[in-house]
Design goal:
The chain has 4 helices and 15 strands. It is α/β, with parallel strands linked by helices and 254 residues long. A hairpin with a 7-residue loop joins strand 13 and strand 14.
Length: 254
């Protein structure tokens, strides 16, 4: 795939827009770095998504639903193994200090619940906050992924890029394995493991729900081997003077 300098911020690569070198792209296990031509190559893996690690001083394009356009489904043979390019626009107004909105457990069971969430939690913040990023830390919905678009519409109305982390109620009911338990989440909300960089802070989102279908308990807290591989590779090059924020849903251990 390719990462380019979205100079006019329209999310589409125009003729004069140059490739970006040194941008990290990952599948949540491996990390690749773009070359002088802006291109990267990730090894074959079973990971369902590919995402760009947004660097400080850059702004991600927006998807049609207003979530940041930082991920793609892993490209298959039908696409020739090529992911659609990632657009990163210059962000000259990136602040030195940073505020974020953090929510958890909206856990809606119906459209009426989403309406309550929007009116009671989101609306009082609209136009009254100075945050530059938002995160919802799991149990976004209550076992009903069809409500994701309504929830996304609510939080993106706050006018900042919004990230998500899955919780135990975001797993697909009837999934046969941990590997397939977040299919709906991946389709609507993107990667379950990722990094997002700002000038003074780095945010890492981590799915820390290990599903155990057919067992008791049905899930436990912890991380997968592919996530440890991602963290080991990513943290190795991270400057220690930057605040590191880990976003997770439940305690890692009992």
């Amino acid at each position: 795939g390719l990462v380019f300098d979205d100079a006019n911020g329209n999310g589409v690569r125009d003729a004069a827009e140059r490739p970006l070198q040194g941008i990290r792209v990952s599948d949540g296990e491996h990390i690749a770095v773009t070359g002088r031509d802006g291109r990267y190559r990730l090894p074959d893996s079973a990971q369902p998504t590919v995402f760009v690690i947004k660097p400080a001083g850059r702004r991600a394009a927006s998807r049609a639903d207003e979530l940041p356009d930082i991920w793609r489904p892993r490209a298959g043979e039908s696409e020739g193994g090529q992911c659609r390019p990632f657009a990163l626009a210059p962000q000259p107004d990136a602040p030195a200090s940073f505020q974020a909105l953090v929510m958890a457990d909206s856990q809606t069971s119906s459209a009426l619940d989403v309406d309550y969430f929007e009116r009671d939690i989101v609306a009082p913040l609209r136009g009254r906050h100075s945050a530059r990023l938002g995160m919802t830390l799991g149990d976004i919905t209550n076992d009903d992924p069809s409500l994701y678009p309504l929830l996304v519409r609510a939080v993106t109305s706050l006018g900042v890029p919004w990230l998500h982390v899955p919780g135990n109620h975001d797993m697909d009911i009837g999934a046969s394995s941990d590997a397939t338990s977040l299919a709906s989440y991946h389709r609507y909300l993107g990667p379950d493991t990722y990094a997002w960089e700002e000038a003074s802070m780095v945010f890492i989102g981590l799915d820390d729900i290990l599903a155990q279908p057919g067992q008791k308990p049905a899930y436990i807290g912890g991380l997968r081997e592919d996530q440890f591989a991602f963290l080991a590779s990513y943290l190795k090059g991270l400057h220690k003077d930057r605040l590191l924020v880990l976003g997770m849903h439940i305690p890692l251990f009992d």
